[in-house]
Design brief:
Structural class: alpha/beta
Largest sheet: 7 strands, parallel
Order of helices and strands: EHEHEHEHEHHEHEEHEHEHEEHH
CATH architecture of the largest domain: 3-Layer(aba) Sandwich
Strand content: 5-15%
Strand order of the largest sheet: 8-7-6-9-10-11-12
Bound molecules: glyoxylic acid
Oligomer: single chain
Distance between the termini: 18 Å
CATH class of the largest domain: Alpha Beta
Helix content: 25-40%
Number of domains: 2
Radius of gyration: 22 Å
Length: 332
């Protein structure tokens, strides 16, 4: 008998063919334990509910580390409902023969759309316009009121030209933009020019960040990064909050080092309403919802179910993060 714990209700409903129905059909409904609450399980609840489990379908809010792997040696697969997996200690999973899967590709378009939504909202000052209406500051039409930044024909800098960065870059062709990029990538699937980070910062009117969070990228957008950007430039981040030195970003917005920012990710998450970031000048915020369309989240859930089932069977799937784990597993 194979048992799994799913750490939140899955999108896509529970009807025939839905992600959760597929899991229940494959394993037997009694073997699929779904955490019923809106908020994630506490660490204690997570450990309790995974006792005797063969697999876990988890989220970015669940920590998969050595402590967990040692406490739950029956677990053979961890399927993450996200493309980023910085909450998972992958080398530790590999060493324990635990397969890790994620949900790449299916969320690239939705997340790139969100980067553009933030870019456009920040450039065209949508929150300021709404505030003006709400506060009764909308006088007669005036040719010098609420001026904002042109987008068409300008330069977009992509930091991290992977799948989501490429999707964001491709959208720029509709705005006749020049695209520059920097970061690791095989051969990006969009028309753009590779430049150094310095050149990207010096030339871009908009910078959109699409890097994974790791030791190399943590805190990389710091005071020196913002100082090297153009004064009228706009910074957008839909990757992970800790890539940004947040106090440095707030200072850069306050003193006019950069013009504006749009963030879907921040530190901490959830961000308390009284955090200084909320009151920062010229900022647009959204609550880590880059992939949150019903269609995309349903595709992610299907992919996570595929990954969980394959991982527990010791099979390779395209979105297996650590193929080496299967060798380690065969030695268990
Ligand atoms: C969400 O943040 C993801 O990594 O998919």
């Amino acid at each position: 008998m194979t048992r799994v714990f799913v750490t939140r209700e899955l999108p896509g409903g529970a009807g025939d063919g839905s992600p959760i129905a597929r899991l229940r059909e494959a394993l037997g409904a009694e073997n699929v334990d779904v955490w019923p609450e809106f908020d994630p399980p506490s660490r204690e609840a997570f450990l309790e509910r995974t006792e005797g489990c063969d697999g876990v379908l988890c989220m970015i809010t669940d920590r998969i580390d050595t402590e967990f792997l040692e406490a739950r040696p029956s677990v053979r697969a961890v399927a993450q409902l996200a493309v980023g997996y910085d909450n998972i200690d992958v080398p530790a999973c590999t060493a324990h023969g635990v397969a890790v899967t994620n949900t790449p590709d299916v969320l690239s378009d939705a997340t790139a759309d969100m980067a553009w939504a933030l870019l456009m909202a920040a450039a065209r000052r949508l929150p300021a316009g709404r505030d003006a209406i709400e506060q009764g500051q909308w006088g007669q039409w005036n040719p010098t009121w609420m001026l904002s930044s042109e987008i068409t024909g300008r330069t977009l800098g992509i930091l991290g030209p992977g799948r989501i960065g490429a999707a964001a870059a491709r959208r720029a062709s509709g705005f006749d933009m020049t695209v520059l990029y920097t970061g690791h990538s095989e051969k990006p699937d969009f028309p753009g020019t590779f430049v150094s980070l310095d050149e990207l910062l010096e030339r871009s009117d908009f910078i959109s960040v699409h890097v994974p969070l790791n030791d190399e990228t943590r805190g990389m957008c710091d005071a020196s990064f913002f100082r090297r950007m153009r004064r009228h430039a706009i910074f957008v981040n839909t990757s992970r909050g800790p890539v940004v030195d947040q106090p440095a970003l707030i200072a850069a917005l306050e003193d006019g080092t950069i013009a504006a920012a749009g963030l879907d990710v921040m530190t901490p998450e959830p961000l308390p309403p009284d955090d200084p970031l909320v009151r920062a000048k010229n900022i647009v915020l959204s609550p880590h919802v880059g992939s949150a369309t019903l269609e995309t989240r349903t595709k992610m859930a299907h992919l996570a179910v595929d990954g969980l089932l394959a991982g527990m069977r010791g099979e390779t799937v395209r979105h297996l993060v650590n193929p080496e784990a299967l060798n380690a597993a065969s030695r268990r």
